[in-house]
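To the team - adenosine-5'-diphosphate complex, inputs and output below.
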Amino acid sequence: MEAIGVLAGGIAHDFNNILQTVLGYTQVLLQNKPSHDPDFINLKAIEESAQKASSLTKQLLVFARKSESNLKPTDLNREVNKISEILSRTLPKMIKIELNLEEKLKTVNADSVQIEQIIMNIGLNAAYAMSDGGRLIIETGNVTSYDKISNPELGLNREGYVLLRISDTGIGMDEETQKHIFEPFFTTKGADCGTGLGLAMVYGLVESHKGHIICCSKPDHGTMFTIYLPVIEAMPAENYAKKIEGNKLHCGNETILLVDDEEPLRRLGYELLNKQGFTVFVAENGEEALEIYRENKKIIDLVILDVSMPGMGGYLCFKELRKMNPNIKVIIVTGYSDNGKVKEIIKSGAAGFVGKPYRFTKILNKIQEILDTKTNRK
Ligand code: ADP
Ligand code: MG
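Output:
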């Protein structure tokens, strides 16, 4: 699958660029044609086909993990509820949708649009397999250590997982079919019905979530897809906002130094922290942060430090700050991509870290946590 992914990704990328050129020129030609021109209808047909081809190649790019995921702390149950509503409107009425959702589901790091694509694709296949009606069951659950041990082949090597299981009571599949379902362009449906890209895309999406997917099926006994998504050890997604609302930070004599190279985020952070009653210094790079800290060491209680900045960057800056004050409290702010660096910084003694996005709501909670431990007010 890895090899097919690389191949497909390479071709799809170039092919999509070619299609964009075809589309672009067609649209230029269309602009100069009145709609009664005999060529108009032909050009429209070219445009439509190129658009279809482009949407196919985009699916291939998803399979090859060349499309970007926007991972955020996500309540999977909420997504499932949303999508099941869409499904119940789109699927034939003789298909009954049942939900069986774990109430205390842990939070996952997910892209809600892509979760929707995953469930939609599996759901549409299920509906196709139940042309005489049947049940589509969507479940969520927390994975226990037992689940992990009893499925060693999955390689569930992270702390916690949440599972999303979608089953149908349709025609099922034989073993030979099951071997190929995730391959791009594999389809048992006629040329007009299937593209063979649905499950390939699902596979790519699950991979970009660092998850796993397995399929269980038997002819005439239905099909079950189980997806494992890694849990993030954090507060449930929706509670961030609530916690902040119900727990207003007090205005003390606390002072924060905010270091971020992006001006809009600096401004937003400044305003937000200021509104909460903090005195705020801002710095747009590591060098400036060190200078400000040196001069105001006595009054700065906490530093919020972005990791990837031009110049000396967050990591070096952190080391220098620690030299000035070994007990300095620093919250590291980071994109999900700089994971390795972050681990290093945490190991070397940062008070905490928060991932982008959700930055400022999460930061407020983190600040409170850190300042609470300092003054023991809980
Ligand atoms: P397509 O739906 O375009 O054929 P997919 O990648 O979505 O492509 O699915 C690939 C193949 O997997 C299908 O053609 C079908 O043979 C098989 N399949 C997928 N889901 C199911 C299901 N729920 N029940 C039976 N067969 C399925
Ligand atoms: Mg499909």
